[in-house]
Design brief:
With about 475 residues, the protein is α/β, with parallel strands linked by helices. It has 2 domains: about 240 residues, Rossmann fold; about 200 residues, Glycogen Phosphorylase B (Rossmann fold, 3-Layer(aba) Sandwich). The chain has 18 helices and 13 strands. The strands form 2 sheets. The chain has a 7-stranded parallel β-sheet, sandwiched between helices. Helix 3 packs across helix 17 and helix 11 packs across helix 15. It is globular, with a radius of gyration of 22 Å. The chain starts with about 20 loop residues before the first helix and ends with a helix.
Length: about 475
């Protein structure tokens, strides 16, 4: 069983991923040319150490990527380490609601980062810096994942001036609002930028609008989010395993949420995402409500909305409760029992089984960094209907392996759902092309190539001249392998 379960931390808050695969497993599913490039970069990095620091060991895409990346690096004997911040509930309220939500423009207009909150954050991050002092001193390259640990950068430079620091931005920053000095986005970004301006490299998703204009172009490079084809979220499952994990899902659904079980003899649609204001869950419900009013559905589909929680995300419970309350309204009375809403424990295999058994997936994020859950669905041959936001259009070929819809157009989403449910030829064609066009650059080996390429360039040359270049393309060009 490949589910993450409870992740244990060392005394230094280091995360040590579970090992359920071997290097040979990766070699079997990777282009030979890519594996040779990775091994060349590994050899060049020998004798140096890279450390990653983020907010949480579980919940959300960053943690998922780091589990896979560090596991692969350990298999390759790379001196790579992953640490998570010492948690504080109020600090995480600040970083989620006053950093993340504001920068993505999903917070209420009157929400502002205050001076008191800045002081609290600085005090908390200072304690973390003291805790990680030896990590800073012993690392050659340190990757700061997103804004939560961004305040550590000045301390890294203080304790180890020779260390190279990479800042990795994982969210959709609404740059046009950041530019306006009257906006809450400007206040939050300027505070964060003051922390990260001394980083040696700025890594963003490959969308130029995600990069605020005061980030130097020459420091900026592009990398996509990634997923791992061998972990619990994506590994191949037998029919028996799928049924086993879906029985677990139903047990949790009944015991934890008091909802009726998912009927596995009927079709169902799924959106897998955190319960977050940016994930468009209210639009998912409205699209489904409109679908159920349409004629011609022989076996009306069920809807599953599920995701994991995270210790650095205080929005999960309020958003979940809002959905449960909404389903008690009159307009949902006839269909509420067909809607399954659940905050799952960290059981990757259950999410895998849900996607594999589903008819198709939704991803109606109103704001999004990349959301690699789209690629995870496509890899399983599931068409995806998604809003045209963030990095999602980089993963879906519109009307070929899914549908891209303007944000808020729930009627169009409902129509596409109806088409996939009633047009068997369309569904079969899209399902086949979903798997075919799932991008292999969004997997762990290319991700490992990118990080080691940047680490080698920084330690060898002192800097990376970015100019909005794609890291993997640079690596392939500079390390020509026949």
């Amino acid at each position: 069983m490949h589910s993450q379960g409870i992740v244990k931390l060392s005394k230094t808050n280091e995360v040590n991923p579970n090992y359920f695969v071997t290097l040979e497993d990766y070699k079997k599913i990777t282009f030979r040319k890519e594996m040779r490039l990775l091994q060349k970069l590994v050899k060049e990095f020998k004798g140096k150490r890279i450390s990653f620091i983020n907010a949480t060991p579980q919940g959300g895409g960053v943690a998922i990527m780091r589990h896979a990346l560090i596991r692969l690096y350990k298999l390759l004997k790379v001196d790579a380490h992953w640490y998570v911040l010492k948690p504080n509930e109020h600090a995480f309220n600040i970083t989620k609601r006053k950093f993340h939500n504001i920068l993505q423009n999903v917070a209420q207009d009157n929400i502002r980062l205050t001076k008191d909150e800045m002081r609290f954050y600085n005090n908390w991050i200072g304690k973390n810096a003291e805790f990680f002092k030896n990590v800073f001193k012993n690392s050659d390259v340190i990757v700061i994942d997103d804004s939560q640990p961004s305040g550590l950068i000045s301390f890294i430079k203080k304790y180890n001036p020779n260390a190279k620091v990479i800042y990795r931005s994982h969210i959709q920053i609404v740059s046009k609002l950041v530019r306006n000095k009257k906006t809450p986005q400007n206040i939050s970004w300027n505070f964060i930028w003051n922390n990260i301006k001394d980083a040696d490299c700025f890594v963003a998703h490959p969308i130029i609008d995600f990069v605020p204009e005061n980030v130097p172009k020459e420091k900026t490079v592009f990398m996509p989010a990634t997923t791992d084809p061998l972990d619990g979220l994506n590994r191949e499952l037998t029919k028996k395993e799928i049924l086993y994990f879906l029985r677990i899902f139903n047990e949790i659904l009944i015991r934890q949420e008091g909802q009726k079980k998912l009927d596995l003899k009927r079709p169902f649609i799924v959106q897998i995402a955190r319960f977050d204001p940016s994930k468009g869950i209210l639009d998912v419900l409205e699209s489904y409500r409109k679908l159920r009013l349409m004629p011609g559905l022989e076996s009306p589909p069920q809807l599953v909305i599920c995701g994991n929680s995270s210790i650095d995300d205080p929005d999960g419970k309020p958003v979940f409760n809002e959905i449960i309350k909404l389903l008690k309204n009159t307009e949902y009375k006839k269909i509420a029992e067909d809607i399954k809403v659940i905050r799952l424990p960290h059981m990757d295999d259950v999410l895998n089984a849900l996607l594999r058994k589903s008819t198709f997936a939704l991803q109606l994020s109103t704001k999004e960094g990349f959301e690699v859950k789209v690629t995870e669905a496509l890899m399983k041959g599931k068409p995806v209907i998604a809003y045209k936001t963030g990095g999602i259009p980089l993963q879906i070929k519109n009307k070929i392996n899914g549908f891209l819809v303007e944000v808020g157009n729930t009627s169009k989403v409902a129509k596409h759902m109806h088409d996939l449910l009633t047009n068997e030829n369309l569904y079969r064609k899209m399902s086949k092309l979903a798997k075919k066009y799932a991008n292999r650059d969004y997997l762990t080996v290319p991700n490992a190539i990118c990080w080691l390429y940047l680490a080698n360039q920084l330690t060898k040359n002192g800097a990376v001249v970015g100019n909005y270049s794609f890291v993997k393309k640079r690596a392939e060009r500079e390390y020509v392998l026949k």
